[in-house]
Amino acid sequence: PTPLGPAVSLDSEPLAGGAAVLETIRRRRSTRGFSQTAFPLGALGRLLAHAYPPAGHPEPPVTLVDGLLETYLVIANVTGLPAGVHRYDRDTHALLPVRLGNPRQALYECCLHQDLARDCAAAVVHTFDLRAAVERLGERAYRTAHLEAGLLGQRLNLGALQLGFGASGIGGFFDEFVTHLLQIPPTHAIAYITTLGTPA
Asked: Which residues contact 190 (CB under 8 A, 6 or more apart)?
């Protein structure tokens, strides 16, 4: 989709390593409810940098196939960001607005009326061009895309917990509803959705 406005640069300060990571893994849980309170833009940037480490970042990348997945964020309540759909540009570590407006009800309906989708501050959606992926990777394209999306989702989850927030993956959704919300072609498949916010 064509951006509706200028890119928003994101914070890329690395998360703490060492013992902090081990403690976060020990405490790792999926959040069961969000409070609908605002999520800091700085924390969102750090989480995306943790999931998609930029060049020079101390964390190694977890990408299995370069350029396979595209990432969109459905923003409901993030400080300093307009509500709506934003495309994440990994190369510049920035968000590009592609659709503006309150997305809570739409995301709620996309995700089988799960309260997590309605109440989260933001949802990270991993998509991929299924036809192009099959041409490139053959019959394992679908599995590879979902494995990579799962790895990224877990990094988002652990990063959110380490920063004192909550996260939960959503695997149940109407694909065609989500592609319409994101304004991407119907040939794109939705691999995984990670909801972020403040636990209720």
From this structure: 125, 126, 127, 173, 175, 178, 179
- Six token digits for residue 42: 């700085």
Task: Give which of 25, 37, 23 is closest to 122, Cα–Cα.
Answer: 37
Cβ atoms of 165 and 199 closer than 8 Å? yes
Burial string for 152-168 (b: 16+ CB within 10 Å, else e) reads: bbbbbbbbbbbbebbbb
Question: What is the pLDDT, as a whole number, of residue 31?
Answer: 86
How confident is the model over 3-59, as pLDDT tens digits?
788 899 998 887 777 667 777 777 777 888 999 899 999 999 999 998 988 666 666
Is residue 74 pLDDT above 70, yes or no? yes
The pTM assigned to this predicted structure is 0.91
Helix H or strand E segment including 178: helix 175-182
Q: Do 198 and 160 touch, CB atoms closer than 8 A?
A: no
Cβ atoms of 108 and 114 closer than 8 Å = yes
Helices (H), the chain: 19-27, 41-51, 104-110, 115-119, 130-137, 141-162, 175-182
Cβ atoms of 193 and 173 within 8 Å: the answer is: yes
- Residue 67 backbone class (left: φ over 0; alpha: ψ -120 to 50; beta: rest): left
Report the distance separating Cα 175 and Cα 148, nearest Å.
Answer: 18
- For residue 154, give both structure tokens: 């877990």
25: three-class secondary structure by DSSP: helix
